[in-house]
Records
---
Amino acid sequence: MIHSKFDLVVSPANGFSQGTGQIPTFDLANNHPFQPFIPDHPDLPFPDPIAAESGNTESPPEYRSAQPSSRAQPNLRRRRLPSSSPDPSVTGIRATPEDGTAVASPNDSIPPGRADGHSSSHKRRRLATMRADGLSTNGFPQASNGSIPTSRKASMNGQSTTASNGESHTNGSAKSLANMSYYGHRREEVTRIIMQSLYEMGYGGAASMLSAESGYQLETAGVATFRSAVLGGRWSEAERILIQSFRNGGANNTQRSSPDENTLLLAEDADRSKMLFYLREHKFLELLEAGDLGAALIVLRQELTPLKYNVERLHALSSFLMCPTELLRDQPGWDGPHSVSRERLLAKLSRSISPSVMIPQHRLAVLLDSVKQSQINNCLYHNTADPPSLYSDHMCDRNDFPLQVTHDLTQHSDEVWYCGFSHDGTKLVTAGTDNTVFIYDTSDFKVLQRLDDHASGVAFASWSPDDSKLITCSQDKKARVWNVETGRCLLTIDHHSEPVTAAAWAADGESFVTASFDLSSQLCHWSLRGTSLHKWKGGFRVQDCAVSKDGRRLVAADTDSKIHVFDFQTYEEVICFPVASKPTSVAISRDSKHMLVSLAEGEIQLLEMDTSFVIRRFSGQKQGKFVIRSTFGGADENFVVSGSEDSQVYIWHKDNGKHVETLGGHISGCVNSISWNPTNATMFASAGDDCAVRM
């Protein structure tokens, strides 16, 4: 309800205050009278306090609507306490240059009570978006970690007062409350992170009330102005703030207790050229999208080029000038429409701004994810895709882990060298020294297909991305492509002069790679018609190969104890590095970030794909003479699982390296291959020399 009167009288019945005057008031318990309340809106932008106070019409409409305006009459003066000092950055009070007398700005609010502790006869209800008063009778502001100027409540004899539904009440010592930690955490940090999350979830009114109650603001005036400039596409204003911030000392600007709306507190590693490049690059792209090639060319030549930053990216931007406008969005590096791309730009720039003044996006969600991941990492038997609850500590039951043999597949008459589930988990392929390949239905483990066209042992098989085709690799020096549904051979690759050891599909399923011991053609890229698309230079024999799920990388393990990583788009070798002993297999994680390499001397290494950095080593299994194919396992690939020459299966936790289980099941000989069902976390298969495949 809106009232047009100013002098307030608290009504216990409805909380409204009425009197005479001109300032509209409303009940904070109700929704804002000027805009609808939108609960649980995931992408609601933060309100712009600077734009709201100044009436800046350049802010985007959705941004301006995030908070109400709260202007007082310009002819009203705020009563000052005798011992207080001005704090213009947070209260709107400004000192005149002649005598330093503080005068109220149009945005000042009336304090909730008199300095002597008696209630004022006239009170104004504080709106949800109005800043709390910043004065204290003892001269001490509320405690802060020094990162931002806090909006402080007026206090009487050291007692903090807050306005709520027209009532003035004390809530303990402001100084002692601000200095108190929240169970070991800084109160200000916790409060501001909660405020940010409330805005992100769509509870803007609750966030504003929390700000008024606590006396903390989410952002400084400078950050709010910078945010508004970036999201509003006011590039000159955004640049001016950045340049002024670097001039004022950037990250070393700690002596400024109250940064104004024209400066930012920057991160220690903030790079001026980098931040300006991001801004001007975005300006260039938007001009191109608008069809203003002349202005875009000026930005490229006169603003971006002089920065001498990221020359490779400059060349890419130059190529955009020759691209038709309708095709720009399809170019690599194009960042999408304004509403999305400006948010992404702000997120990139925020990494160079001190988090103490501009909290990184979705900070509470990131912290909660960290807590969840920590619990998962410490849960030895975690094997579910469902995220842990926040309500209680997480621990999976060992009884829910696949520890018992449920099926014994004995169709093979000799050693089984390979087993692998289809991507949808509905089928299982097995292959061995009996020259035979079996395809099973995993719902009942009945044989769907028996493929026996190979003339020698089959060492490997690979499912196409859509599971409609299967490649088999044999010691008869041939690779065959099969139709899974009919069991018909679609293509035979007989180009190699040595056994074909492995194969891998391209991400689109339209081509594949074969690996061989053949020194002259150890790696070949084929189309589904059997046409050779590329043949890598010879000189080494390949034991195993794999293509990342994103289609960017081809990894090959050779018999000379080296791992080769190729760019699968350009065929160029990205990196080649040695390993401690002969690698017997290589597997790539589903997220294409890590690879798992099995070594003949009984060690398994988890490495970063791009850097070849060894993240973790796993040992304990027995390996020396035979090829053993280890792999990732579990619902979220939380495990590393491998066979062993002692007839057992070993399982480790991928993230903490702990040994989880050692499982029996095979009668004798080596366990050669392991495969974990990608859609059923409670099922994995092992293939061994005892002619059996066990589930």
---
Amino acid sequence: MLMAVNGARVIARWELMREWSRKQSVRWDLVTALEQYKAVVQEKAKNKSAPPPTFEDEPAIPRVSDMDVDSSVKPRGSPT
């Protein structure tokens, strides 16, 4: 089980880095991604007859307009 989780994390990180290097990260919708994650975690808990997790103490994701993103940063090995 632990290997499957760690493998999934590695794949997800690799996919995110690939999207960022291809300049596709502008399309990321973090709020929607978080809501989807919460739904999956809650459904898994329900299927295992476990108490559903709470996300009350989670920090809020700032709006895109509030994020300070430096567009001049380039990934290593990318053409200028």
